[in-house]
Structures are given as C-alpha cells and as structure tokens.
Amino acid sequence: MRIPDIISLKQKVRPLQLFIDGRGQESTSGITIPVMNPATGEQLLTVPDAGAEDVDRAVRAARKSFESRAWRSMDGSRREKIIWRIGELIDNNKEELAALESLNNGKTYREALQGDIPPTADIFSYYAGWVRKIYGETIPVDGNFLNYTLREPVGVVGMITAWNYPMLLAAWKVAPALAAGCSMVIKPSELTPITTYKLAEYCLEAGVPEGVVNVVTGYGPTAGDAMARHMDIDKIAFTGSTRTARALLKASGESNLKHLSLELGGKSPNIIFPDADLERALDAAFWGIYANKGEVCSAGSRLLVHEKIYDEFVAQLAEKARTMKVGDPLDPATEMGSQINQVQLDRILSYIQSAVEEGAEVVCGGGRDTEGAKARGFFAKPTVFAHVRPEMKIAQEEIFGPVLAAIKFRDSDEAAEIANSTIYGLVSAVWTRDITVAHRLAQQIKAGSVWINAYNCFDSASPFGGYKQSGFGREMGPHALESYTQVKSVWVALD
Question: Is the distance from CB of 418 to CB of 304 less than 8 angstroms?
Fold first, then answer.
C-alpha cells in the first residue's frame, strides 16, 4: 500500500475559496474557518465562512446554467462520457484523495483508500450508464388521446453533506443529479471540505459546464439555513442528523416547499444466532462498529446475541477490541484513527458515562486514549458494554463512535422486537444458517437494508436509505434518480 509523501502533500494544500461558476471566489465577509487534522490538532488550511449572499451567488450561477440548458440539453452520449471521466479522474488520483481524506477526517489511510475512494469513482461509472436510460412512457387512457410522460430534471439541487465520508457522500448526490441533468450547490461539512472541492474541480476538468457544480463552505445555521430557505433551490439532498433534518423540513415549509431527500442516523441491530458462522460473525461485528472509528450511520452499534452464546461471543469480541491498534491514521498498521473533533469525543464520553450510570458493564475500553502522541488528537478507546437493556440510552440513541452495546435475546421474535424498539430504521443484519428465520426477520425488521450473514454491503446499483426517523428517499441505484427528476404528463387530443 503506497502512501503519498505527506509533507509534500501538505505543502500543496492551500486555503480554499468558494467554487462558484467554475472558479474560485472570495466570500462577502472575508471571514474564514480553520480546517484541522483531528489526529494531531494541527491546522491544514482555511475555507470561507459563507453567508446568505454567498449562497445566493452560487444558486444564481446554478440557476443560470440550468436555464441555459448547457448541461441537460447536451447530447446524452457526450454527458455519459463526461460523467464516466469524473470517475476516472477520481480513480487516477486515489492515493492523494485517500491521504487528504485521512488528514482531514482522522480515518485511517487504509480505510480511505479501500472504502471511500473506490466507491466514489464507481458511482460516476454507474450513473454514466443511466444518462440515456431516463425516459418517459406512453399510457393507454380513455378517450381519443395520446398520453405520454416526460421525466425531467428537478432543477437546482442544494446538497448538504456530512463529515464522516466527505467525498463519497457528495458523490452519492452529485452523480445521479448530473445524470438527471440538474445543476447544484454543495455545502460540505465545514470540518471536512477539502475533497468535495476536489470533486468540483474534477467535474469541471471532465467537461461539466461552468455553473453546474458549485461549492460553498460554511456552517449549517448560516450557509445551510440559507440554502434551505432559498426560493430558487428546487430540492435539498441531505445527509446528517435527525435534528438538522427537522430544521430543513421546517425551512422548506416556510419557503417554497422544496423537495427533500434525507439520509439520517441509525441505531442498527446486528443479530447473532447460535447456528451462525460465528468466526465470520465476530469479524463482521467488530468492523461493523469500529470501522471509521464508529462514525458511520450504518454502524452495528447494537449487537443482539442469543443467550446461548452471549457470554463467550461478547468476551471474544472484547478481547479483539482490546488488541486493536489505535493511533496515527497514516500508519499502515493502524486499525482505528481519531474521532473528528473534541465535540464528538465529548459526546462519546458522555454516552459512556451514562451507560455506566444506568448499570451497563464496561467489558473493555470506556474512555479517551491519550497514550503518547495520541494526546494531541481526539482518540477514543474501542468500547464494549455488556448487560445492556434495550431501554438504556446507549441502546436507543446514536452515539456515532466506537461504542458497542451488547444485548441478550431468547428467540427470533424477541430479537425482532428489540431490533424495532428505536426511532431509527437504517440498516440491520441477521446471522443464521436457518433460511426461514433469516427471511422472516428480513420481513419483520423495519429498516432500509437487511444483510443476511454479512454486514455493511454496498453497491452503486443497490438503493440505500432508511425507515422511520432514519430518513426518506434513497441513495444509489435507479431509485436515487427519482429524487432528482420529476414526471410531466402530456396529453394530445387526436380528434
């Protein structure tokens, strides 16, 4: 595994501007936001703190490009090649992008190189193939009419993305939006804006017309709120917290009733039966919670283990967690890097404290990791709690960190009841060789994804999204195109 020269890479990192109408622009206020490396506490660069005027400039650029039809009316074969080329540019620069993601997010370089960048490139390859397959239908209706539908781009899309998978989450939105013919304004998290800016540059380099892809950097209550309330944004695509989603819904209702698609949090159950391949299940449970430091919306943070194997399975998992190498994200041997910032670390520690107060048992971990150089960053110890009751706070609320709540169950009906006992419904998993139990639970569990004898399976062709308060709308697959298009019915009288 080749890691780029980090010193050289840091020297190339420069303060970013807003990316509007195909070029860098300064913000109106001139105020900037520091962007940090969470593993070391060092500042990497600064980005503009965009306000409502800056958002308006970006939206006007997007609207101008949309109404000019420069992108949506371009020959489909050409648009297809351009979107494909974006994926190629990402793949050609995968080492540098993975290093930037690691520096800015605190995840390991290995995870970024293997788990972030390849699917980011692939999503553009996938949607390149959809450009010439988005079409309407003819409908037999009563009367002497020809009735047909047109599937048209929804318009200008505001995209607000999260900090845990910065480039990938942006790509999940940008790729189908480009395939549909939309223009867009992206607001990445102010914590992790670097690779989203690179994505916009790749779009321009590949041949996407100026003004189609714009990036504004700033905080949610200012730049994000301005996007949510802007009367010329037709749709918001959001990944983040349920609390912010409620604010976006309110803002939409108070402005132009813009379309919304929401990919929110989860408290996902990973259900282990005694007849499962326990070695595979153990490894999947381990990475299901500790991958990306637990800062994953689909993290298997609730481990439901059958009572016959509960004690042994939890003990083996805890032993594996105790020996996990936590440290420098750029070290190839590191298995878990730094949490994103002090706020998130404090949140994790507060949940650990609440679990102890409610009577859960700390089997391993349970605090901050300050050994050696890790004292400069925001490192948490991989934590396992046993004897967790379903009503406990750590079993109900999303922690977004490396904290596992192990819950005991007696049979499949109780497992389903516990699985469905939170406000969330993003993903789930069932480990058993009994296909009847597996398929019955797949029907009973209220979640957007159910993995059987596997965990964290994703593909550009397969839809991803949640039930209940994990959101609505779907990322990836043909289903995502429904979020970026609208249907028009055309009637032609034939007499």
Answer: yes
Residues 177 and 208: their CA atoms lie apart, in Å, by 12
Find the domain containing 338 and state its range.
269-460
Closest by CA position to 136, among listed 481, 480, 487, 484: 487
Q: Of these residues, 80, 101, 263, 295, which one is catalytic?
A: 263
Confidence bin at 400 (pLDDT 50/70/90)? very high
Cα 263 to Cα 165, 183, 224, 336, 471: the distances in Å are: 13, 20, 16, 25, 5
pLDDT at site 184: 98
Give CA–CA dist 155/14, Å, rounded. Answer: 32
Q: How many domains does the chain have?
A: 2
Tell whether 226 is covered by a domain: yes
pLDDT attached to residue 430: 98
Of 297, 335, 398, 482, catalytic = 297
**Euclidean distance between CA atoms 231 and 244, whole angstroms:** 19
Q: Is the pLDDT of residue 314 over 80?
A: yes
Same domain? For 398 and 259 the reply is: no
Q: Coil, strand or helix: which one is 469?
A: coil
Q: Is the pLDDT of residue 11 over 80?
A: no
Token look-up 């003819």 returns 138
- Alpha-carbon separation of residue 110 from 22, 115, 191, 289, 426 (angstroms): 32, 8, 21, 17, 26
Residue 297 annotated in active site? yes
Confidence at 426, pLDDT banded by 50, 70, 90: very high
307 is catalytic: no
Which regions of 207-308 does DSSP assign to beta strands (E)?
A: 213-215, 235-239, 259-263, 269-272, 302-306
Cβ 297 vs Cβ 469: under 8 Å: no
Q: Which uninterrupted H or E stretch holds 171?
A: helix 166-180
Measured between alpha carbons, how far is 461 from 429 in angstroms, rounded to an integer?
Answer: 20
* 184 and 291, same domain (yes or no): no
CATH of the domain at 452: 3.40.309.10
Could you give the CA distance from residue 180 to residue 484 in angstroms, rounded to a whole number?
Answer: 6
Q: Which two tokens stand for residue 474?
A: 């779907």
What the block records as the tokens of 173 is: 């939105």
Q: Is 218 left (phi over 0), alpha (psi -120 to 50) or beta?
A: left
Task: Express each pLDDT in 128-150 by its tens digit.
Answer: 999 999 999 999 999 999 999 99
Asked if the model's pLDDT at residue 113 lies above 80, the reply is yes
State how far the Cα of 452 lies from the Cα of 455, in Å rounded to an integer. Answer: 8
- Look up residue 408 and give its two tokens: 């005991």
The pTM of this model reads: 0.97
Beta strands 145-153; 302-306: pairing state: unpaired
283, pLDDT greater than 90: yes
